[in-house]
Design goal:
Length: 405
């Protein structure tokens, strides 16, 4: 009896295993049939998934609002904040900055000027009055006076003296003003003394070689070891260097690109001759900074409107953000090119150089650079998200499981 019961249990287990095996075979058969159908219609399925991605990432009503806002901000920036400024001659460009110096230090009287000119000039150690009222020592075209420097005038003298470098000038130019010296692009320094000519105007005269190391030693000594007056002189020299760089930057010949003078003045001048000078590069940099800032603000504010229930996965919402930024940048850049082209064409047709110049001043070079970067970076981002979406949705269909992207 016991053997019969055991045999019955064994037969029952075997029957269960057989049924389980048959069920597994049926499941495998269904899976194989489903995979076969998927393989047969793979192009249709992928096309359908692609359509789903487009639907989930198309711009909604609020997105369109952001698109118009972003485009308007970029266009406003182009014409009101980051256009190329009009260049003026050196005297006109310097006027407002000379006035700032006069407002800060007061205007020197003739008697004060005569007393200053009659006083003894000390090498490396000009008086407070000399530092305050003398022209900056490196801003002169007559530097060849008795040392045959051949610095020249116009842009050449700015490219030949480190006091005019937009970056190095803050150190070298300040030291030159504080010590009444001039330092060339080769690192050589010279004492500069001022003598009045017949009309009373001060003319610089290079009168002797100077040691560049002593230029900086005396400058730092004034700052740290000569008490309040030394610190005042250093502060005035720094202020005057800042004013001088500002006044020269938007003059017609502007300033060289930082550090290019160290290669050679001729190299810096060749760059300036094709428009690569401090003012133009600064404007392009400003255009890039403003365009990037607007894109960042739009991206951040748009993220505040994300709702997981309504918008789905955050990655899909980010695709919409990227589309807003790309579309707005492209629209703004294309419209800018059209406006500049039409304005320039009108100027050419009417033989009006001022019209051409004014139209070209609105060319948004920095914005175009940002647009090209956005097109590339946003395309790669959207492509990556789309690929992930296709892979996961395709996996969902093949495996027959529900999978929400």
């Amino acid at each position: 009896m016991r053997n019969y019961r055991k045999l019955k249990e064994t037969l029952h287990e075997g029957e269960s295993q057989v049924r389980s095996g048959i069920d597994n075979i049926n499941v495998m058969a269904k899976d194989a049939e489903r995979v076969s159908i998927v393989a047969k219609d793979v192009h249709i399925i992928i096309k359908d998934i692609d359509k789903q991605f487009s639907e989930k990432t198309k711009l909604s009503g609020i997105d369109i609002t952001f698109l118009f806002l972003a485009t308007a901000l970029q266009c406003a920036r182009q014409y009101f904040f980051t256009n190329f400024k009009e260049r003026t001659d050196d005297k006109t460009a310097a006027k407002p900055f000379k006035k700032k110096e006069e407002d800060k230090f007061g205007k020197e009287t003739r008697i004060q000027k005569k007393e200053r000119m009659d006083s003894t000039h000390n090498w490396y150690h000009p008086s407070l009055e000399e530092v305050t009222h003398n022209p900056v020592p490196f801003d002169q075209a007559a530097a060849k006076a008795n040392l045959n420097l051949h610095i020249g005038g116009g842009f050449k003298h700015r490219a030949s003296t480190l006091g005019h470098d937009p970056v190095l000038g803050w150190v070298v130019g300040t030291a030159n003003i504080a010590t009444s010296t001039l330092t060339t692009w080769e690192g050589k320094s010279y004492h500069v003394k001022y003598n009045p000519i017949s009309n009373g105007v001060l003319k610089p005269m290079n009168v002797n070689h100077a040691r560049t190391d002593l230029v900086f030693d005396h400058t730092f000594n004034r700052l740290f070891n000569e008490g309040p007056e030394g610190k005042t002189i250093f502060g005035i020299a720094l202020f005057r260097e800042a004013m001088h760089l500002k006044s020269d930057e938007y003059s017609k010949v502007s300033l060289p690109i930082p550090f290019t003078s160290l290669i050679s003045p001729d190299f810096a001048k060749k760059l300036a001759d094709i428009g690569i000078d401090s003012a133009n590069v600064g404007t392009i940099g400003k255009q890039i900074a403003w365009a990037t800032m607007i894109n960042t603000i739009i991206s951040i504010v748009h993220s505040f409107f994300y709702d997981e229930i309504r918008d789905g996965k955050i990655s899909l919402y980010q695709v919409r953000t990227r589309k807003i930024l790309s579309y707005s940048n492209v629209i703004a850049s294309v419209s800018n090119l059209i406006v500049v082209t039409i304005g320039s064409a009108i100027g050419i047709a009417s033989e009006n150089p001022d019209q051409i110049k004014k139209s070209l001043s609105y060319l948004d070079i920095g914005g175009i650079i940002v647009t090209l970067h956005r097109i590339i970076s946003d395309y790669n981002f959207i492509k990556q998200i789309k690929q992930e979406f296709l892979e996961k949705e395709f996996y969902n269909i093949v495996m027959g499981d529900e999978y929400n992207f």
